[in-house]
Amino acid sequence: LISNKSCYYYALNGQSDITSSFDLPLCQDTLSIENSKSYFCLEFATVELTTTFQPTFIYSYTCGSALLTAYIPVILYSYIATGLILPLLRYPMMKLHLHLKKSSDVVELNGIAINVTLMQHLTVLLTFGISYPVLGIVIILSIL
Asked: What number of CA atoms fall less than 13 Å from residue 17's CA on the CB side?
């Protein structure tokens, strides 16, 4: 986010100077009327003026998209691993556990842990999954 130019980059590094030039018309020769406060310009000239300034930082509300761009791939790969790799590993681990335990007892699931995990998945789904639909589909498939 700090190195992204659409976010906080210019707040920390400053922007380069901007030079602007413009022409200003001036009156070189005037004619004044006696007993009057009126002046008439007889000859015009143009003077070019140049100014240089450093623009200030203005937050443009684009950090949200920079945040999504930075973290969506990480979350996407995490849920692909959760939905594909972990189920493939779960079956051999359960077989190994039952083999080591030497009994046919059904493995008991902790309901509180399952609820907490589902709430975490739902939170990620409602925050990142809505803004990036492909991630939403992957999250839903990995929860199922």
From this structure: 6
CB 36 within 8 A of CB 23: no
Burial of 76 (0-12, 13-18, 19+ CB in 10 A): middle
Helices 133-143, 63-80: crossing angle, 10 deg rounding? 30
What digits encode the pLDDT tens for the residues 80-109? 887 777 777 777 777 776 766 655 555 555
CA distance 128 to 11: 26
| Predicted pLDDT of residue 23 | 93
6 closest CA partner among 54, 46, 51, 58: 58
Asked if 80 and 46 count as a contact pair (C-beta separation under 8 A), the reply is no
Least confident of 17-21, 97-101, 118-122: 97-101
Name the strand (E) or helix (H) holding 25: strand 18-32
Output helix, strand, coil percentages for the chain, rounded to the nearest 5. Answer: 55, 20, 25
